[in-house]
Amino acid sequence: MFITFEGIDGSSKTTQSRLLADHFQQTYDVILTREPGGTDFAEKIRESMLISSIDPVSELLLLVSMRYEHMKNLILPALVEGKVVICDRFIDSTIAYQGYGLGVDLKLINNLHELAGIRYPDITLILDIDVKAGLNRAKDKNKYEEMDVDFYNRVRQGFQEIAKKEPSRCSILTNIETMDNSQVHNTIINEITKRLV
To answer: Per-residue DSSP letters for the chain?
Structure first.
């Protein structure tokens, strides 16, 4: 089973992916990973990509190549072995940030992922949070967190659109800013349980 967490910065994706991994480790063999990153190659590029300003299409090409390596060398082998893979960000972040946020053509994003043979997750949990609340909570300062509120409103809208288009894969959890971590975690467990029944 391949599960991803999505949402704008400060939506507790990292915290919730760790909590879910801890929960599943009681029963399953779990791999917890992240993007950008997940492999030695991608982790080396991650830091410079998050601080350097480059053309959005160039950034997209980097992300797709990093994701291909991640998929080929970590995610697919783990899934073949019957492990649960939990990833903090994946393809939907590229659609939301580069597509909706930066204006890269959505068809180009989808075509590149299709050409690379990128597998979509089985379950995607989108943590929806008010933009200002999310940015106030964000811990890792990078070039995206310096973007204006309009950019983040577009990104948030992108995630909402993805959830509407793919309800069989995506669960959107709203009003995250009104819940503590344990409440969000319990909501996530309920959502996954419903999908696995």
So the answer is: -EEEEE-STTSSHHHHHHHHHHHHTTTS-EEEEESS-SSHHHHHHHHHHHHS---HHHHHHHHHHHHHHHIIIIIHHHHHTT-EEEEES-HHHHIIIIIIIT---HHHHHHHHHHTTPPPPSEEEEE---HHHHHHH--S--GGGGS-HHHHHHHHHHHHHHHHH-TTTEEEE--GGGS-HHHHHHHHHHHHHHHH-
39 close to 120: Cβ distance less than 8 angstroms? no
**Rounded mean pLDDT of 34-50?**
85
Q: What is the mean pLDDT of residues 147-171?
A: 94
Six-digit token pair at 159?
């995630």
Looking at residue 1, its pLDDT comes to 94
Span 61-84, mean pLDDT?
A: 96
